[in-house]
Each structure stands twice: as structure tokens, then as C-alpha cells.
Design brief:
The protein has 449 residues and is an alpha+beta fold. The protein folds into 3 domains: 137 residues, no CATH class; 155 residues; 86 residues, Arc Repressor Mutant, subunit A (Orthogonal Bundle). The chain is built from 17 helices and 11 strands. A 4-stranded mixed β-sheet has the order 3-2-4-5, covered by helices on one side. It has a 3-stranded antiparallel β-sheet with strand order 9-11-10. The longest helix has 23 residues. It is globular, with a radius of gyration of 23 Å. The two termini are 33 Å apart.
Length: 449
């Protein structure tokens, strides 16, 4: 597979849960430009106090116990103290002889409340319980966890250098909003439960980090399980393999791709293919754990052992059927971006999804135009991503590449309705101006020649 120079640098131990990015979208829609203000508002969202209902006690109590965030009372009366900086040291979780939660003793002067972040991660629907960010709204700095989440949005090009939403970021925000509307809030109320927005998030990650992810998925498909030590070794081997590929005589890798691979080596602390700076470091773990946890959120990895027992508090991974299918189709793709554009929708679609018959995705294409249209027209990649996700929500298969092709057909068949224009880079059209009034007259048939 061709190296494209799509390598995300600087991923760290705070950049684990994609749900954090979904919450950050809401902040960036209202606030941009001021890093400290953005980080503080994100921290306020994460630490908003949520009242715990009786039916949530079991899941929350198990989460707090495992994280050592509160005192734990055992059946024999002994008490395990929380860790020194535990944010719920005033709470006491009581366990029965089987280790099940029988109750949580909270404050006597009011209802039991915990951070929204902890309440949501305790939800049994979340794929992984690691990655909670300690957020002190009084002390926000460039080194705080929430500030690192802002950096993550920039790395994935969801946010621009001015810390406003990019066109892709706005598309993702639109998709998350529509996901909430489609499900009446049942999953959107918990940002850590990833639904149909997995297509947009996966596409965004492949556009930013496809060279690494494509090769990582291929390697993960050949293992039965992966732990922390093996993961560190795996990413080191992966980087050296990419370096050898870039150096290979007759390689099709561009200068940009070769430079990106060298930057990746430095990012991991590896100086050359034959010599390391020493044993694999914590830095290498931070780089790979961010990718592994994101793949878990997206459904490519799972945290259950072969017997089916959940290990969602551990850094333990096993490939899913989606990852196996992705690996097989990646072997036939020319590049990571080509694969994401053409194959990703089918990999992530439920088994019940149908391939579109002629003109069957017209309603989704029309709705995507309306959702993405701005004062200067539409950003074509954003339109394609929204249209493909809407189709997925409605049980249809439509790739971003196909959605882009349908827009091209509209411009060719009806130049009075749509006009395409190139952007600042690349050879293909990046923007389109649309006359919605004329498009409404023609209808969805305009997208098909």
C-alpha cells in the first residue's frame, strides 16, 4: 500500500476516548480562538455534576471501586481506602460476598452526584473504561488533560490553527447532532457510546493517520490478543517497517511521505531502523495506546477475553470481525485514503444494510446538501461524509467516494444548479456552489445521470 504521509504525531495518554472529541465539538461550536477558555468550558462539561438514580448504582459503584475513586466496604467490615487524590473520597461503596455492589453511601444533606464523565464511562454500553481526564476548572494550563484534548482536535484537523471548527469538524458536529435526533437521545446522551458517527470518526482518523492505521490493522488481524508490552513492541516494529518501505529502491513514496515516516520515528523515540535510543519508552506506549483505544471505540477492537469476560478496565485488545474484514479489503486498496473513501462504509455497516439500487440514496444526498450548505457553498468532502452517514443511518450503503461522484454528476448534468471549484491544494474539486431553489425543482434525480 502506498505511503501518503498521513501520520498523526504527538498522540498521548489523554487522547484515548473519542467521546471527549464529541464533547469538544459542542464547545467549539460556541467558543473558538481562546485556548484557555475552550479548555475551561470542556472541563466544565466533563465535571458537570449528574444525579445518580437507583438503577445506575451497580454500574457506577463497580466503576468507582475499580478506579479506587472512593472508599470500599467489604462483607467482613474492612474498608479499602481510596487513592490519595480520589475525587470521591467522601463516598463509600458496599460490596457483598460475590463482589457485587449493594449500595453507595453518599452525602447526607443531598442526592448522590458524580461527574458527568464518570457517570458516562460507567455505562455498560461504553467499549472501554480507561481514559478519564482529571479536570480542574480552576487550574487550566497547556499541560492539563483537557488542553491535550484540544491538541487532539487539531491533530485530526477537526479544529484549525485558530481553534475553530474546520469544514470536516462542522460535518462531524452535524452528524453527531443528527445521530442524536435519529435515536431520540438514547445514545447521544452518552458521548462515549459511538453510533453511526463511527463512519465519520474513522474517515477523519484515516485522513490524518492512515499510513499507520492501515498497517496496524493488518498486523492486529494476525493476533489473538494484545497487551501493553506487546503493543509497544508492535508499534516500534511497525515504524521500522514503514521506514524500510520508504527507503526501498523504486518506492513510490513521495518526499512528503518519507519525511513523515522520519518524523514518526522521532515521535516514538526511534532514531533509525537499526538503532533505538534504548528500550521502548512510555512515549511509544502513549502513541500506540491512543490508536488502540480509538480503534476500540470504533468497533475494530474489543476488550473481552476468549471466554467472553469483559476486560474494559485493562489495556487488553482482541480483533473484531470488522477489523478482520478491514484488513482483507485494505490489502486490495492502493492507499489509505482510497480505502477510507471507497470501503469504510461497507466495513462499518450493519449486516442488514443494503447496497443502493439506482437513485435510492437521493433523499440522503438532498439532505446532505441542505445540512452542509453555507454562505460560500459546500465543502465537498464534508458533504460526502454527511451523505454517506445519513445513508448508513437509513440502512443503505453509500461510500464517500460514491457521494462525491453523485455531486459531480449533478454539476455535469445541471451546470445551472451546481458548479465545482478547486481548493488550495490537490487536483480535484474541493468546493461546490449550489442553487438550492433549482435543485428542489429537479429533485434527487439530478444527482443521477
Amino acid at each position: 500500500m502506498k505511503l501518503e504521509g498521513r501520520i498523526a504525531l504527538g498522540l498521548d495518554e489523554f487522547m484515548l476516548r473519542l467521546g471527549h472529541l464529541k464533547m469538544l465539538l459542542g464547545v467549539l461550536q460556541k467558543t473558538h480562538g481562546n485556548r484557555a477558555r475552550i479548555a475551561r468550558r470542556l472541563a466544565e462539561t466533563l465535571t458537570e455534576l449528574v444525579e445518580v438514580r437507583g438503577e445506575d448504582t451497580q454500574n457506577l459503584g463497580a466503576y468507582l471501586t475499580r478506579k479506587k475513586l472512593c472508599a470500599v466496604v467489604h462483607p467482613d467490615g474492612s474498608v479499602t481506602a481510596p487513592h490519595p487524590k480520589a475525587r470521591y473520597s467522601h463516598l463509600r461503596v458496599t460490596l457483598d460476598a460475590l463482589g457485587r455492589v449493594t449500595g453507595i453511601e453518599g452525602p447526607r444533606d443531598g442526592p448522590l452526584r458524580v461527574w458527568f464523565q464518570d457517570f458516562s464511562l460507567a455505562d455498560p454500553r461504553t467499549a472501554s473504561k480507561v481514559g478519564a481526564v482529571t479536570a480542574d476548572t480552576r487550574e487550566i494550563s497547556n499541560k492539563s488533560g483537557v488542553s491535550h484534548l484540544v491538541d487532539w482536535a487539531s491533530v485530526l484537523e477537526i479544529a484549525n490553527k485558530r481553534l475553530g471548527l474546520t469544514a470536516t469538524g462542522r460535518a462531524l458536529a452535524t452528524i453527531c447532532g443528527r445521530q442524536e435526533a435519529e435515536t431520540e437521545g438514547s445514545t447521544a446522551s452518552n458521548p462515549y457510546v459511538i453510533g453511526y458517527e463511527s463512519l465519520a470518526l474513522s474517515w477523519i482518523m484515516f485522513m490524518a493517520d492512515g499510513d499507520v492505521l492501515a498497517r496496524l490493522i493488518s498486523r492486529l488481524s494476525k493476533i489473538t490478543s494484545l497487551g501493553k508490552a506487546d503493543a509497544i513492541e508492535l508499534v516500534s516494529e511497525l515504524c521500522n517497517e514503514m521506514d524500510a518501505e520508504a527507503r526501498r529502491g523504486g518506492s513510490s513514496a513521495s518526499v512528503t511521505a518519507v519525511r513523515a515516516v522520519r518524523d514518526f520515528q522521532r515521535d516514538l523515540g526511534i532514531h533509525s531502523a537499526s538503532r533505538r535510543a534504548g528500550p521502548p519508552s512510555s512515549t511509544a506506549w502513549h502513541r500506540i495506546s491512543s490508536r488502540l483505544e480509538s480503534l476500540t471505540d470504533l468497533g475494530f477492537l474489543q476488550k473481552t477475553d476468549p471466554s467472553g469476560a469483559r476486560r474494559d478496565h485493562d489495556y487488553y485488545y482482541r480483533p473484531t470481525e470488522a477489523l478482520i474484514r478491514a484488513s482483507a479489503s485494505l490489502g486490495e486498496a492502493g492507499s489509505p485514503s482510497d480505502w477510507a473513501d471507497n470501503q469504510l462504509s461497507e466495513i462499518l455497516a450493519p449486516a442488514s444494510s443494503e447496497r443502493p439500487s439506482a437513485r435510492s440514496c437521493g433523499p440522503e444526498l438532498l439532505e446532505a446538501v441542505r445540512l452542509c450548505l453555507g454562505p460560500t457553498g459546500i465543502h465537498i468532502d464534508s458533504f460526502a461524509l454527511v451523505a454517506a452517514t445519513l445513508a448508513l443511518m437509513h440502512g443503505k450503503l453509500l461510500s464517500p467516494a460514491e457521494a462525491r461522484e453523485r455531486l459531480r454528476d449533478l454539476a455535469l448534468g445541471h451546470p445551472d444548479i451546481a458548479r465545482l471549484s478547486r481548493g488550495y491544494a490537490g487536483s480535484r474539486a474541493e468546493f461546490a456552489s449550489i442553487s438550492v431553489a433549482k435543485l428542489d425543482q429537479v429533485g434527487a434525480s439530478g444527482f443521477y445521470r
